[in-house]
Specification:
This protein is of the alpha/beta class. It has helices at 11-26, 68-80, 96-106, 119-123, 151-163, and strands at residues 33-34, 58-63, 86-91, 112-115, 131-135, 140-146. Helix 2 (68-80) packs across helix 5 (151-163).
C-alpha cells in the first residue's frame, strides 16, 4: 500500500512562488511613477494628454496586429471602456493605412495610437505585448503588467487605483 507523500503539500505553494517571481522578473523594466506622454496622434487625428482623463483611473493598452495573445485579451480590455478611459497603442503594426484596415476589419472600438518604431513602448519600458498600465487619477502608473490578464483582474486593479491614497 502506497502512502501519500507528506511533502506533496509543498508543491502548490512552491509553484505559486515560482510563478509570482517569474511575473515580477518579466515586468521589472516597466515604467513606474508618472506616466510618460504618448507624444503622437490617434488614427482618427485626436491627440491625448493624461490631463484629458484627470480625476479618474485610466487604462493604457499596448498591443500588436501580429500578437495572438493581444487578440485573446482584447475583449477584456474593451469591456472596461464602458466604465473607464481606455487608450490603446498599436506597437509595430504597419503603416497607418494598414492599421486602419485592421481596426476596421476586426471591429476594434478603442482609440488607437500607432507606434510603428516602438518609441512610445520604449518610454514605458516595454519588451513585448500585450502590456497594460493602470494609471491613477493623478497620472501615476499604479499597476503595469504584460501577458494575459482577465477583465476581473483589470477591474480590481482599477478599483484599487481609484481608492488608493
Amino acid at each position: 500500500m502506497k502512502r501519500p507523500l507528506k511533502s506533496g503539500w509543498l508543491f502548490w505553494p512552491a509553484l505559486l512562488v515560482i510563478f509570482l517571481a517569474a511575473q515580477a522578473w518579466k515586468d521589472r523594466g516597466l515604467v513606474q511613477g508618472r506616466a510618460p506622454p504618448l507624444g503622437t496622434r490617434a488614427l482618427d487625428g485626436a491627440g491625448f494628454a493624461w490631463d484629458d482623463v484627470a480625476g479618474r483611473p485610466a487604462v493604457l493598452y499596448f498591443w500588436a496586429t501580429w500578437c495572438p495573445i493581444c487578440r485573446a485579451i482584447r475583449s477584456n480590455v474593451e469591456a472596461l471602456a464602458a466604465d473607464y478611459p481606455v487608450i490603446s497603442v498599436a506597437l509595430q503594426s504597419g503603416s497607418d493605412s494598414v492599421l486602419r484596415h485592421y481596426v476596421r476589419r476586426e471591429g476594434f472600438t478603442l482609440p488607437v495610437f500607432p507606434d510603428p518604431e516602438g518609441t512610445i513602448a520604449a518610454r514605458f519600458g516595454l519588451q513585448g505585448v500585450p502590456a497594460i498600465f493602470i494609471v491613477d487619477a493623478g497620472g501615476t502608473v499604479r499597476y503595469a503588467m504584460t501577458g494575459y490578464t482577465s477583465e476581473l483582474g483589470l477591474r480590481v486593479r482599477l478599483w484599487l487605483a481609484a481608492h488608493r491614497a
